[in-house]
Amino acid sequence: MHDRVLTGVLIVTADNVGPMSCEEFDRWYDEVHVPDILESGCYYAATRYEAAGTGEGQYLAIYETDWPDPMRAFEQFAARLGHMRKYDGLVVRHMAPYLAIGGAHRAT
Known about the structure:
With 108 residues, this protein is an alpha+beta fold. It contains two helices and four strands; from the N terminus they run βαββαβ. Strands 2-3-1-4 form a four-stranded antiparallel beta sheet, covered by helices on one side.
């Protein structure tokens, strides 16, 4: 596998408002949704977080891309959304691509 250069991310906040339990939703997300996203070829990594407090969105997902044009990755991904296996109880509160503008800063 070659080293990937992060060029952008897709940020999504969402809520599970459907009938699935948290465990069922987690299983659907990990076994169905993430594979659909990664198989699109637009994003190579997916990380999901659960809100630690109140705010907009029970979940935050960050999808990483190394496409030279991250906006093009998002457009290609958006065009595929209709073909992905959905869960009607997932309500997306926010979805937007962000472009990397510098290297990662890490503590030493």
